[in-house]
Specification:
two-stranded antiparallel ribbon; alpha/beta; TIM Barrel; globular; binds NADP nicotinamide-adenine-dinucleotide phosphate; 292 residues
């Protein structure tokens, strides 16, 4: 499935999350192998970030999988310590070198750094105009951060990648993005990976109501959640290291959730996410640096 972005390019869905494969910031042949397996199975959208420390593995996987480059949609992100006009240009060069790709499909500002939003965005627009990247966007942006971008932007962000799963659906920011033509990309769609420390029993994949729907359709709870995303028009980017789950997470086209089933999932929202609030992330993220 493909979603049309506001600049006319297509984003494949679902994507494949590469954060913390084989452990946080692991960058090895083993990581590349997992990602190459995902490409071989049919994933066309790969999500990484400079802070994941695995851009080299993503690049290696792309070269070894043998899929034509133009059929892949490669995303990376600039970390908080990389914001500012010159810093973004520099960070992009570094990411591009680590990935060893001629161009990227989507470059994102990973979290808002409120004092630097407008100058960082100007650099993003420059990268786009120089055709180093096919689309630019943001991640973890609140309505106030989006308003700040839009106040001076020549290019409206193509997407906002935010935490979305049935326990946290962020309706206000989604509604704002919709009015501006900004695509929603759902990260941690299954309720976060092991990096978060959230117990499996607290994640939506083990929710009794979701399990009930899964049984009815003879599919897995993860497939219910991912399909719910697609039917809402959001692009989920699940991560898995296990071929059976990777395959499951890709097979979302053979069933449809009814309106009543969609409402069951919508009603599970608790209003609280598992990841950091952008307000708390501003300082916390500054303390983490991007590995060379
Ligand atoms: N922009 C941001 O700030 C941000 C933040 C967080 C994440 N992300 C992106 O979003 C991606 C996904 O988020 P995430 O890794 O936090 O969490 P996630 O995709 O919601 O969940 C991953 C966890 O679910 C398990 N899983 C995968 N498929 C499953 C299935 N079919 N049934 C049951 N469990 C399954 C995985 O285990 P196994 O691997 O063992 O299968 C892993 O523990 C990341 O990799 C990253 O690319 C972005």
């Amino acid at each position: 499935m493909e979603f049309l972005l506001n600049n006319g390019i297509e984003m494949p869905a679902p994507g494949f999350g590469t954060g913390a494969i084989r452990g946080w910031q692991a960058d090895s042949d083993e990581v590349a192998q997992v990602i190459a397996t995902a490409i071989g199975m049919g994933y066309r959208h790969l999500d990484t970030a400079s802070i994941y420390g695995n851009e080299r593995s993503v690049g290696k996987a792309i070269r070894s999988a043998g899929q034509p480059r133009e059929q892949l949609f490669v995303v990376t992100k600039a970390w908080n310590t990389e914001h500012g006009y010159d810093q973004i240009l520099h960070a992009f060069d570094h990411s591009q070198r680590r990935l060893d790709l001629e161009y990227l499909d989507l470059y994102l500002l990973h979290w808002p750094v409120p004092s630097l939003i407008q100058e960082s965005w100007r650099a993003m627009e420059r990268l786009l105009s120089e055709r180093k990247v096919r689309a630019i966007g943001v991640s973890n942006y609140r309505i106030s951060d989006l308003r700040c971008v839009l106040e001076r932007a020549e290019v409206v962000p193509a997407c906002n990648q935010i935490e979305i799963h049935p326990y946290f659906t962020q309706p206000e920011v989604r509604e704002f993005c919709k009015t501006q033509g900004i695509q929603i990309v759902s990260y941690s769609p299954l309720g976060t990976g092991s990096w978060s420390g959230v117990l499996n029993e607290n994640k939506p994949v083990t929710d009794p109501l979701i399990i009930q729907i899964a049984k009815r359709h003879r599919i897995s709870p993860a497939q219910v959640i991912l399909r719910w995303n697609l039917q809402h028009g959001w692009v989920p980017i699940p991560k898995s290291e296990h071929p059976d789950r990777m395959e499951q997470n890709l097979e979302l086209g053979e069933f449809t959730l009814s309106e009543a089933e969609m409402s069951v999932l919508d009603d599970l929202d608790t209003g609280t996410g598992f990841n950091m609030d952008p307000e708390d992330a501003i300082e916390a993220n500054m303390a983490m640096s991007v590995p060379e």
